[in-house]
Amino acid sequence: STAAVPPLVAFVAALVSHMGFSGLSEGLRLEADTMGTPALFGSPPVRAAATHLLVPGGLHLAVTTVVGGVAAVVAGADVGPALPWLVMTTVVLAGGNLLAAYRGRPPTGPFNAVPSAQGVLLWYAMPLILDTLIVGGMVWGITRWPTSGLLVIGSWVAAAVMLYAGLNRVQSESLSHRDV
Description:
There is one protein chain. Helix content is 72%, strand content 0%. It has helices at 7-24, 26-33, 45-51, 54-75, 83-101, 117-144, 149-176. The chain is globular and about 55 Å long. The relative contact order is 0.18.
């Protein structure tokens, strides 16, 4: 359709969203950096990490709703159908930021204890790449196929998997810092 968002715009918007969400998630990174020390308020690590996502997630949702609403009014479109997609992108970005904050050490090969430079670069870039591809695909796809049930289901599954992977990473990093 002629009103569809060009793919490049969708993926650049996803990249900007990831960068903005990451900037707001500094508390999450600081929480991850102090992993293994006693908790200040006694919260379990997963709950503490999820709590650190409330403000960035809420701000992302508010800003994208306002910007999306203004863009929809300017374009003469309806804002209502976009609201569930804003929630989905917020969940994806939250999962990606959990993966970024609690990334741990880069994987090594079986015969080399030092990771390669390319492996380290990919390890650090993976949350950014995942967020950009998933959110950009959502934005581009919904403008192409707004009534596709498969796209909606796939997007919710992708959002849930990203959040689960992030929370699972928090748990595994927490357990790796535990004195046994």
